[in-house]
Amino acid sequence: LAFFLAERYSIDDEVRALLDTTIFHLIPTVNPDGFAIADKKCSGTTGRYTSEGVDMNRDFPDHWQTGTKLKFAVETQFLMEYADKTPSVLGLSFHDGALLANYPWDAHPDLNTGDYAASPDDALFLNLALSYSLNHKEMSDTSKQCGNDDFKDGITNGNECTRSTMVCRIGTTSTTIALS
């Protein structure tokens, strides 16, 4: 994304207008240890863990966390502090392990995993997920998805997805894009 935006800035009016009116914060990876050893395939957990064995997909506080967890990985602490100091309106997190746009809520405490868990901004999240999926060259095509995945239009509500990936409570509208 950074390369695309920098390369297109001087030749693309839309990119220039976007960059001239929007503040971007790009964090290339939240888990450099895991990224260095990650498998580049549809499934598996190689690369998910830090060098200290912390699963970065499960180390963030979610919307309903009671606050009982007092110790987070260094990487998680950095992101939580960064998010507290850096107001933002829209977030996008890229993962691997599937080919889909996953939107909140994940791990809703009042619903069984597999049930739809609408967020207060459900229509917005659904629109963002569909916009990404339908404009991706393969995501919305179920024949291109990983393994036995069958995500209609290449999207899923986090609580319906058995992978239940992280949704970080940082006061930002955020969608997770999985690209494998």
What this model shows, in words?
This protein has a four-stranded mixed beta sheet. Helix content is 27%, strand content 12%. With 180 residues, it is α/β, with parallel strands linked by helices. Helix 5 (122-135) links the parallel strand 2 (99-103) and strand 3.
Q: Mind sketching the topology for me?
A:
Layout: H1 2-8, H2 13-21, H3 32-37, H4 74-85, E1 90-95, E2 99-103, H5 122-135, E3 155-157, E4 173-179
Parallel strand pairs: 1-4, 2-3
Antiparallel strand pairs: 2-4
Spell the H/E element sequence: HHHHEEHEE
Overall geometry comes to: globular
> What is the share of helical residues?
25-40%
Give the structural class.
alpha/beta
List keywords for this structure.
single chain; 180 residues; alpha/beta; 4-stranded mixed beta sheet; 5 helices; 27% helix; globular
Summarize the structure.
The chain is α/β, with parallel strands linked by helices and 180 residues long. 27% of the residues lie in helices and 12% in strands.
